[in-house]
Specification:
The chain is of the alpha/beta class. Helices cover about 50% and strands about 10% of the residues. Helix 1 packs across helix 2.
C-alpha cells in the first residue's frame, strides 16, 4: 500500500514539472541541435570551437520560454523576435572578439536561417504531443471546486479548456440548490454540499481542491478547511479579489507574511534593469543615426515661423510626477496652461513644416533625449498634457494607472489605431484599455514588436495631424 502511494506521489511530481521542464529545455535544445545538424551537414568536425559555442548558446537560452498557449501568429512573431535578438548578440560579440571567423560562413548562415523554423516547428509539435503524454493513466490530476461563484465557474472552464494543466475537473460542491447555480462547465456537475466534500475527496483520491467561496463567508471557509485537514489533497484558495481587473497581480511576502499585489508596475527588480538598459542602448544608437536629420529639422523649424525650435510641455511621468517633454515645435503657439486644445484636422495653428513633422512623427524625435534623461521610455503609454490628464482622470476609469510606468515615445495603443486626436471619451477609453493591457503583458519581445509596428504605422497612418 505504501509503495502504491509513493508511486502516485512520484507520478504527480513528474506531471507537475513536465510542462515547466519542457518549456525550460525546448528552446535551448532545439537551438543547439540545429547548430549540430548544420555542423554535421557541412561535415565539420565537432571540435573545441563548436563545444564552446554550444555552451554559450545553452547558457544564454536556458531556461526557455513556455509558448504552449500562444496563438500561432503570436508564436511565430515571438520566436522571430527572440531569435533576432539572440542572433544579434551572438554576431556582435563574435565579430568584436574575432571568434566568428573560426566557423565556416555557410554553417553560421544556415544555422541562423534554420533555427527560427525549427523553433516554431518544435513548439507546434510539443503543443500537439504534450496533452497526450499528460493524459496517460496515472499521470492526470483530479480536481474539485468548492463554490459555484462567478470566478469558481470561470476557473472550472479554464481548467477544462487547458490540456497543458494535466488536470481533470470532476465537479463542484456548494450548499445552494441547483436552481440557484450558474451554468456549470459541460461535464462538471454539482456533486454535493460542502459538508460532503471531505468524504468525497478521501473516497475518490482527489488531488486538488480549489476553494472559490466569497471572502465574506470567512466562517464557512475556516470550517471547510478544518474538515479537509484529514485529507492529503492540495488545497488552493482562489479569493474573489482576483475577479477585479488586476495590474501585474501577484503574491509576494514580507518576512514570511503573504501580501497580494493588486496594482503594480511590471518594471520591478531585474525587469526594471532590462527595461532601462534597453532604453539607453537603443536611444544612443538611434540618436547617433538621426542626429544629422535632427539638425536639419531644427534649422527648418527656426526658419519656418517665429518661436523656439523645441516645444517643451509639462506631462505626467511615472508615478504621476510632472516632467518636461521635448518636441520639435510644429505650431505657431506653445500652449501649456490649464486648458489645452488638441490639434485637429486642418488646424490653423499648425505650420506647413509642422504638418509634415506631425504626420511623419518626426516632431517626436527630441524625446529620445527624454529617454536618456530617464523621464521617458521608448515604449510605454503616450504622455498627455497635464490639462488633459486632469480632465480624463475624472471621466475614464483606471486612467491614472497608466502612470505606473514611464511614458513612451510609442505605445501599444498607438500601433493599434489609437494615435492622434482623441476627440471623444470612447476613443480615450480605448487608448487607456490598450495602455493597461501593455502593463499587464509587458515583455522585452513585446517592446521590440511595438517598435517594428510603429514604423509601419507612421508610414501609412492617417490619424495624426
Amino acid at each position: 500500500m505504501l509503495a502504491v502511494l509513493d508511486r502516485q506521489q512520484r507520478l504527480l511530481k513528474t506531471q507537475l514539472s513536465l510542462t515547466s521542464l519542457l518549456g525550460a529545455l525546448l528552446d535551448p535544445l532545439v537551438i543547439v541541435l540545429t547548430l549540430l545538424a548544420c555542423e554535421a551537414g557541412y561535415r565539420e568536425a565537432f571540435d573545441a570551437p563548436y563545444i564552446v559555442l554550444v555552451l554559450i548558446v545553452f547558457s544564454l537560452t536556458f531556461p526557455g520560454v513556455t509558448r504552449f498557449h500562444d496563438a500561432p501568429g503570436k508564436l511565430v512573431r515571438d520566436v522571430l523576435l527572440y531569435w533576432l535578438a539572440l542572433a544579434a548578440i551572438l554576431l556582435f560579440f563574435g565579430y568584436a572578439s574575432g571568434y566568428l571567423r573560426v566557423f565556416p560562413q555557410p554553417v553560421i548562415l544556415t544555422w541562423l536561417a534554420a533555427t527560427p523554423i525549427a523553433l516554431v516547428a518544435a513548439h507546434l509539435a510539443a503543443r500537439a504531443a504534450l496533452p497526450r503524454v499528460m493524459s496517460m493513466q496515472g499521470n492526470l490530476r483530479t480536481a474539485v471546486i468548492a463554490g459555484t461563484t462567478e470566478h469558481g465557474i470561470r476557473l472550472g472552464r479554464e481548467i477544462r479548456r487547458d490540456p497543458f494543466l494535466g488536470t481533470r475537473l470532476v465537479g463542484f460542491f456548494d450548499d445552494r440548490d441547483k436552481a440557484r447555480l450558474g451554468e456549470l462547465p459541460a461535464g462538471s456537475g454539482l456533486l454535493g454540499n460542502l459538508r460532503e466534500l471531505a468524504a468525497f475527496v478521501k473516497e475518490n483520491r482527489i488531488d486538488l481542491i480549489y476553494v472559490t467561496l466569497p471572502m465574506a463567508t470567512q466562517p464557512r471557509i475556516l470550517a471547510l478547511l478544518d474538515d479537509l485537514r484529514d485529507t492529503t489533497a492540495s488545497i488552493y484558495f482562489v479569493p474573489d479579489l482576483f475577479v477585479t481587473d488586476l495590474i501585474q497581480g501577484r503574491i509576494s511576502n514580507i518576512n514570511g507574511m503573504p501580501v497580494v499585489a493588486v496594482c503594480e508596475t511590471p518594471f520591478t527588480g531585474m525587469d526594471g534593469v532590462i527595461k532601462r538598459v534597453s532604453d539607453v542602448v537603443l536611444s544612443l544608437l538611434i540618436l547617433a543615426l538621426i542626429s544629422p536629420l535632427m539638425v536639419a529639422i531644427a534649422i527648418g523649424v527656426k526658419k519656418s515661423s517665429p518661436g523656439p525650435v523645441l516645444f517643451k510641455q509639462r506631462r505626467y511621468g511615472a508615478d504621476g510626477k510632472q516632467i518636461l517633454v521635448y518636441k520639435f515645435r510644429s505650431m505657431t503657439v506653445c500652449e501649456d496652461g490649464e486648458r489645452i486644445v488638441q490639434a485637429t484636422r486642418n488646424d490653423q495653428r499648425v505650420t506647413r513644416l509642422g504638418a509634415f513633422l506631425r504626420k511623419s512623427s518626426l516632431d517626436e524625435l527630441p524625446q529620445f533625449i527624454n529617454v536618456l534623461q530617464g523621464r521617458m521610455s521608448i515604449v510605454g503609454p503616450r504622455p498627455h498634457a497635464v490639462a488633459h490628464n486632469e480632465l480624463y482622470r475624472k471621466l475614464v476609469n483606471g486612467y491614472m494607472v497608466r502612470h505606473k510606468v514611464k511614458p513612451g515615445i510609442t505605445g501599444w495603443a498607438q500601433v493599434n489605431g489609437y494615435r492622434g486626436e482623441t476627440d471623444t471619451v470612447d476613443k480615450m477609453q480605448k487608448r487607456i484599455e490598450h495602455d493597461l493591457d501593455y502593463l499587464r503583458n509587458w515583455s522585452l519581445g513585446m517592446d521590440l514588436w511595438i517598435i517594428l509596428k510603429t514604423i509601419g504605422v507612421v508610414l501609412k497612418d492617417r490619424h495624426a495631424y
